[in-house]
Structures are given as C-alpha cells and as structure tokens.
C-alpha cells in the first residue's frame, strides 16, 4: 500500500478520535487524584430545567468514586432521577431523604450503596418528596434540616465522605434552599445553547442572599459547560460568553452533547459505567479530575 494512502487513512476523523480518546485515557490514568482534607459538599443547581443537573451529579460522583474517593449523592429532586441513574431503590415505600427532612430520621438510616462504582452511596428520593415543600413551611428551622442531618452524620463517621453531591429540583423552593444551606460549594451546569444565561443572574442573587443570611460558607466554585456541539457557532459563542463572565469558575473541560450520556440512565447507570470509552464518559472523568485538583476554595469559619 502506498505511503500516501496509509497517511490519509491515519488522518480520518475516526482515527483522530480514537487517538484522542487514547491520549485522554492515558493522561487520566497517569496521575492519581488528590483527596480533599475535609468533606466537600456540592449543591448542583440551575433554575433552568434540562441543563444536565442530574446527569452532572451522577457522573461526577461516579467518576470521583472510581478514582478512589468516598462519595455520597443526596437526591433532593422528587423525580428521583439521580436515584434511578445510580441503581438504588426508590419506590414509594423506600426510606428516603423525605424521612430525614420531614420525619427527622438519621441520614445513615436511609443511605444505600450504589452498584455503580467504587465507594459510592446514595440517599434516594421518593414521590413523597413532592409534598415536602408544603410540609416544611410549618417546621422549626425549616431551611436547616438537611444541613443538621448531614453534619451529624459526618461527625459520627469514622471515615467521612470526601465528596457529597446534592441534586436539586429546577426551582428555588424550600428543598433547594435546604440544599444551599447544607453545601459549601455550588456547581452550576450551563448548557451551550440559546438562552443559556437566562435566569442565571437571578440564581446568583438568590445564592448571594442565602450566603448572607443562612450560610456564609456558600461559594459558587464551579461552572460546567454541558451539551456542547462543536459543529455550531452558537455553542462556541455561548461557551465564550460564559467564560468571559465567569473566568475563575468555569472548568476547562466541556461536556459534549452525547447519545451515550442520554442513554445511560435508562439502564440504571451513569455513562461512566455504561460506556467508559465514550467521549461523554471521558469528559466527565476529566471534569471530576479538574474539580479534585482545583481543590475547595478557602472560606473562613468552614465547619467541615
């Protein structure tokens, strides 16, 4: 075969993609991720729906657990999609986060081990959580209930979690406020599509109010660009706009629009477990590595 033919074949898009994936896998395997010196608690939030909150929660959790971290996911969305993706039971009669917030059950009593990867656990959500917003109104310290349960559980553990991820519903009700009060850090997924920044200024104002009045430790530490399609000028423009507005918070890693990422939850898995070699899986592994290596922002008076 002529050398020119071999050269042409080696430069096909598929060959370039395979070579790129191999290079990225090698880079991920070459350096172990550092573990935090205290538990990092993230709330994954965006008032806009369909931006990849749950997908980001379960895949970052799975990626960090695969790297050797001890990880807990708290599913605070009544839809229970994070519970489904992590393969844990969440039928209506299952002990869940509802029992913790409304019934004062210890957090440890409702945690389930996920079969997904490594040392990964989940506090499931059930349909009962849909009525929790109304029930919380009359309870004492209604904004602090998740925080108190989580703090108590972490203090009782011989080896506390390295990471806790809280998956929120796409609204700013009492459930989401509980998540913000319980967290040290906020991670905001932003889709690389039209109206991506819509409502973001209001979300940031709400977070600022919660930081001022309820949780001085709260910090918007991370913004992750999701559903990126490199073939469109719009996606590139949105990505640049977000980077211009939030140069310190935006991760270098971008999550591409991927069929595999969308398929994985229907099999009760993250994309990390469903198709480890896919571009979506590699991107979430890289995002998790970036979060781990960045470390937690230093906040005075942090309790964890």
Automatic annotation (TrEMBL):
Pfam family, one: AAA_31
InterPro entries: AAA_dom (IPR025669), DNA_Partitioning_ATPase (IPR050678), P-loop_NTPase (IPR027417)
Sequence ranges assigned to domain AAA in this UniProt record: 40-219
Lineage top rank: taxon: Bacteria
CDD domains linked to this entry: ParAB_family
Similarity field: Belongs to the ParA family.
SUPFAM superfamilies: P-loop containing nucleoside triphosphate hydrolases (SSF52540)
Function per UniProt: May play a role in septum formation.
Protein name: ParA family protein
Source organism: Orlajensenia leifsoniae
């Amino acid at each position: 075969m002529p050398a020119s033919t071999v050269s042409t074949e080696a430069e096909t898009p598929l060959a370039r993609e395979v070579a790129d994936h191999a290079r990225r896998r090698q880079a991920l395997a070459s350096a172990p991720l550092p573990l935090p010196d205290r538990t990092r608690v993230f709330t994954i939030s965006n008032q806009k729906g369909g931006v990849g909150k749950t997908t980001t929660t379960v895949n970052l959790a799975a990626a960090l657990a695969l790297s050797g971290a001890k990880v807990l996911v708290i599913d605070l969305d009544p839809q229970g999609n994070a519970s489904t993706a992590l393969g844990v039971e969440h039928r209506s009669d299952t002990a869940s986060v509802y029992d913790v917030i409304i019934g004062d059950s210890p957090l440890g009593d409702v945690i389930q081990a996920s079969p997904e990867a490594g040392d990964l656990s989940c506090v499931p959500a059930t349909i009962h959580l849909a009525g929790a917003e109304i029930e919380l109104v009359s309870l004492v310290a209604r904004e602090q209930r998740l925080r108190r349960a989580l703090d108590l559980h972490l203090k009782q553990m011989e080896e506390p979690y390295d990471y806790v991820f809280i998956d929120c519903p796409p609204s700013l009700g009492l459930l989401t406020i509980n998540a913000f009060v319980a967290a040290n850090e906020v991670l905001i997924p932003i889709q690389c599509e039209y109206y991506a920044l819509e409502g973001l200024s209001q979300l940031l104002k709400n977070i600022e109010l919660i930081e001022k009045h309820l949780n001085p430790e709260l910090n918007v530490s991370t913004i992750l660009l999701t559903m990126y399609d490199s073939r469109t000028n719009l996606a590139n423009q949105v990505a640049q706009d977000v980077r211009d507005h939030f140069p310190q918070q935006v991760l270098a890693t971008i999550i591409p629009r991927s069929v595999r990422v969308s398929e994985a939850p229907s099999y009760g898995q993250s994309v990390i477990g469903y198709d480890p070699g896919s571009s979506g899986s590699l991107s979430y592994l890289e995002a998790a590595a970036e979060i781990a290596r960045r470390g937690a922002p230093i906040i005075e008076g942090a309790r964890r």
